[in-house]
Amino acid sequence: MIYLIKPVWYQSQLITIIQNYLKEKHPNKKLIIKRNYTHQPLNETNTYIVINDPKLITWDGLEISKNIRLYEPQALLILASTEIDHNKFFKSHVGFFGIIDIKNLSKKAIQNDIEDSIKLLDNQSNV
Questions:
Q1: Phi, psi for residue 50 in degrees, rounded to 5
Q2: Which long-range CB contacts under 8 A does 31-34 form with residues at least 24 apart?
Q3: Most buried residue among 6, 41, 98, 110 by CB atoms closer than 10 A?
């Protein structure tokens, strides 16, 4: 499954880009949008795209990512952030599969991250 974890009122072109790409290239895959992380059964490895905007006082995407990693160590995490601080992300020890710059969205980069995560998970399930 592919989940997008975001504040309830948060809007971004990122959502549309991902939904359109999945509809076009992977119609059997759905983007599930959630307001918070809830522990998922470990019968499959999931991909999580987590919104991180340091200007939002009540929302901490990095902390949400750490929580996901704690309960789902094999999950693929993609951080979509308004501020790119690779040093901070590295020191968090979360191990992100990808980083998306929300302020400078690259449709191709987003599509590549989604495609790479789908291929990796498909390969793992075929082993």
A1: -115, 125
A2: 31/2, 31/3, 31/4, 32/1, 32/2, 32/3, 32/4, 33/3, 33/4, 33/6, 34/3, 34/4, 34/5, 34/6
A3: 6
Place of tokens 């991250």: 113
Amino acid letter for position 73: P
Grouping H, G, I as helix, E, B as strand and the rest as coil, residue 32 is strand
Q: Give the integer Cα–Cα distance in Å for 79 and 65.
A: 8
β-bridge partners, 52 = 81
pTM of the model: 0.90
**Helices then strands, each counted (H, E), the chain:** 4, 5
DSSP string for residues in 72-101: -TT-EEEEEESS--HHHHHHTT---SEEEE
